Amino acid sequence: MYYPVARPRRLRSSANMRKLVREHYLRVDDLIYPFFVIEGKDKKVPVQSMPGVYNLTIDLLLKEVAQINALDIPGVLLFGIPDHKDSLGSGAYDENGIVQKAVRAIKDNYPELLVITDVCLCEYTDHGHCGIIREGKVLNDPTLELLAQTAVSHARSGADLIAPSDMMDGRVQAIREALDGEGFEEIPIMSYSVKYASAFYGPFREAACSAPQFGDRKAYQMDPPNKREALREAEQDIAEGADIIIVKPAMAYMDIISAVRENFEHPVAAYNVSGEYSMIKAAASMGWIDEQRLTMETLTGLKRAGADMIITYHAPDAARWLEDQI
């Protein structure tokens, strides 16, 4: 049927009519908020390229977590920034490392909040790469053991989900076997299965102090033009034991989110990364855009693309805006 019999505007005529026919909704339950944790006490260091985001010591982290918990955001993702870095990233798997201490503190105070830990070496290595370096190359297989040690140490500290982001081949299997061998078979793996070598990560590198000291990460993170490769990566991680698949970044990769959603039954997480966040914040600070409307439109678009959950620095603001809509 066509006009004048069909009139699509009939279903757009009022706010309540639009609610009745709305196909996708963003909920607070969909959100995960990332935190950057540093050593020390009473330190709140602003990330200059990410307005509203801070590197926090554990005492101040707990105050921020209290607000996240009060907003009913179900989970947080922790990145650790140690005082000391070395070639093997030993702070990543230190039982008294910064993430391990932060996990214990959060779980002691907010046991029901889901704590997800990023498993990688780049924040902990003095060279800034995600694995062991030899003769200028990142070695895949020797790195797996260190990643597995890191995952087990996070699990011992009380982490609810383990999220490997390194993009080494076989790391999900290595982590799954290590967790199972230590009695942590019930802890799920939330794998950064589809992680592109993206320019959108720039502000994160400042926050995590993790920029490579030489070269780049293109030899292990994915080439942005590739789509079929994303499906192969997701399929392999699922076969190795991944429980949730992350696609990162999000905004320029909605087609990838959609393809992963259509091809696999596993839950899909979209990581709305630092550069995506900072672009909105920068434009809003200039008065060029309506920050609330654009943020909510973006996050809802990620849901429409197929994301079951969204890791985003917008989470506290989005949760408050959603509460105001009730």
Give descriptors for this structure:
12 strands; 17% strand; TIM Barrel; 326 residues; alpha/beta; globular; two-stranded antiparallel sheet
Could you please describe the fold and organization of this structure?
The chain has 326 residues and is of the alpha/beta class. The chain has one domain (23-325): Alpha-Beta Barrel (TIM Barrel), CATH 3.20.20. It is built from eleven helices and twelve strands. Strands 1, 2, 3, 4, 5, 8, 9, 10, 11 and 12 form a ten-stranded mixed beta sheet that branches. Helix 3 packs parallel to helix 4. The longest helix is centred in the middle third of the chain and has 18 residues, at 140-157. The radius of gyration is 20 Å and the shape is globular. The two termini are 36 Å apart. The mean pLDDT is 95. It catalyses: 2 5-aminolevulinate = porphobilinogen + 2 H2O + H(+). Its cofactor is Zn(2+). Keywords: Heme biosynthesis, Lyase, Magnesium, Metal-binding, Porphyrin biosynthesis, Zinc.
Summary of the model, kept short:
This protein is an alpha/beta fold and 326 residues long. The protein has helices at 15-21, 58-70, 98-109, 140-157, 171-181, 202-208, 228-240, 254-263, 274-285, 291-305, 315-325, and strands spanning 31-38, 44-46, 54-56, 75-81, 114-119, 132-134, 137-139, 161-164, 190-195, 244-248, 268-272, 309-312. Helix 3 (98-109) links the parallel strand 4 (75-81) and strand 5.
